[in-house]
Amino acid sequence: MTAVVRALQVALAAEHSACYGYGVVGAHLAVGSAALGSAGSDWIAHQRARDQLIAMITQRGGQPASSAVAYELPFPVTSATAAAQLAATIEDGVAQAYLALVAQPEPDLRALGAQQVRVSALRAESWRGSTQPFPGLPPASLRH
Fold first, then answer.
1. Which of the four pLDDT bands, split at 50, 70 and 90, describes residue 135?
2. Which residues have CB under 8 Å from 43's CB, separation 6+?
3. Of 5, 13, 32, 40, which one's alpha carbon is 20 to 30 angstroms from that of 56?
4. Which helix (H) or strand (E) holds 125?
């Protein structure tokens, strides 16, 4: 498997996880709320990104990884507040996964990776209520 296909697979795995996670997020938000509308929009965006990555992997001769039946959540989600925290955490993970594309030599892949890091960071900000420095990089990687 080429480095490009591996990077695409990393992003695809994050998108599969995000699609699952937003189902959990939505289940804990009030019907008709703005938050539920945002969760639905974000879920659709991740489905579209997933489908785009599947096509890109296939075009490069790779076999796109399937999604898991279920994913382990990073913490229990039992309220709307926890659901918003999960959404922000999902977006942080997606941004981190797309950094693998930013590092690729193909300009189109770098642009896609940078764009997806950006939109994930903006979605995370909308759920968290604040921005984080260097989206996609774990805080521990920023220490000296």
1. confident
2. 18, 19, 22, 23, 25, 26
3. 40
4. helix 107-128
Given this model, what pLDDT does residue 142 score?
A: 57
State the amino acid at position 3 in one-letter form.
Answer: A
CATH architecture of the domain covering 3-65+72-128: Up-down Bundle (1.20)
Domain boundaries, the chain: 3-65+72-128
Q: Among 25-39, 81-95, 123-137, where is mean pLDDT lowest?
A: 123-137
